[in-house]
Amino acid sequence: MSTAIAVTSADMALPPHDERTLPAVVLRDVDRRPLEHALAEMQTLVEQHGHVIVVCSPAAPTAVQRRLHTLRSLMESDRIALFRPELPPLGIAVLARQLRQLASCDISPGVLASAGRLLVHYIHAGALLGSVARLDRVPVGLKSHAKSWVPGSQFGVLAHPEPQLVRITPEAALPGPEFGTWMLVAKGQLPSDWVTGTLAPSWKAQGLREVPLPAESPGWWGTGKMVEFCSYLPDLSVLYQLVTSVRRGSCHWCGIDVIGDRCVFCSVMPPVHDSPPPEQPENRTAVG
After folding, report:
1. Are 54 and 80 spatial neighbours (Cβ–Cβ below 8 Å)?
2. Does residue 149 fall inside a structural domain?
């Protein structure tokens, strides 16, 4: 029984990277359908797969996020994990696909859910923007805001792992990964020449593929004049080695195997034990 990896829209279900990649479960219109229909769908998923990991973008509509929490509360189940990593939409889609790859392996549901928090650190996500005037998810200085009103200005922005912003010039560069990755590119209303011809070679991308721009991307980046990009580890063998090399533990609340310091299914942190008070020296009275 394989753990189900669910996403909240079809454009977040990227094409399989290899023949082992499991299909994503798309929770279509989860906020618009009658509650009883969405609840029945989630119950069926849990019955069929045992556990469900929902990967949701922070840019998803508030109604979607609220409905997911409602479903989990109504089912009173620790078999549903709601995972909302702080990544742009294309990075969310990439991470969901990596979990779909790993779901085909002999990895327990708790470790698989925890793996998402580990794999986030190996994703570089950003965009080429025609304006940063409405960009509020990455720090932008006043000078960049002013330059964004100059016709023809473009900006390279790295949102993760460390926010960076540069104005596109012949010398412009963004810090990339120090390990071999592939790059995924999603075109909006800008040419992608700088991303594919300059950035990808400077990051030593071992492969490059294009996908449609996620519907949530313009809202996340504050403009439709953009090209979103994301570098990632594509090989299942590498992902598997990363995840299985981390020490495992057990959640003290639900007992499921996890890696890291938090169970994604029951959202419980490990208990904090107070340190014992320092030993006081004995008060001895000298005998004369």
Report:
1. yes
2. yes
Between CA 133 and CA 138 the distance in angstroms is 11
Q: Kindly report, residue by residue over 60-79, the tens digit of the pLDDT.
A: 889 999 999 999 889 877 88
- In the chain, beta strands by DSSP E: 4-7, 25-26, 52-55, 80-83, 124-129, 155-160, 164-167, 182-187, 208-212, 226-232, 248-250, 257-259
Q: What is the pTM of this model?
A: 0.87
The structure tokens listed for 176 are 């990339």
pLDDT in tens, 209-266: 999 999 999 999 999 999 999 999 999 999 999 999 887 777 666 667 767 777 677 7
Give the CA angle between residues 93, 187, 141 to the nearest 5°. 85
Give the whole-number percent of the chain exceeding pLDDT 90.
61
Does residue 137 form part of some domain?
yes
Same domain, 184 and 129: yes
The per-residue DSSP string of 66-125 comes to HHHHHHHHHHT-SSEEEE--S--HHHHHHHHHHHHHHTTSS--HHHHHHHHHHHGGG-EE
Amino acid at 250: S
Q: Which domain holds residue 72?
A: 4-108
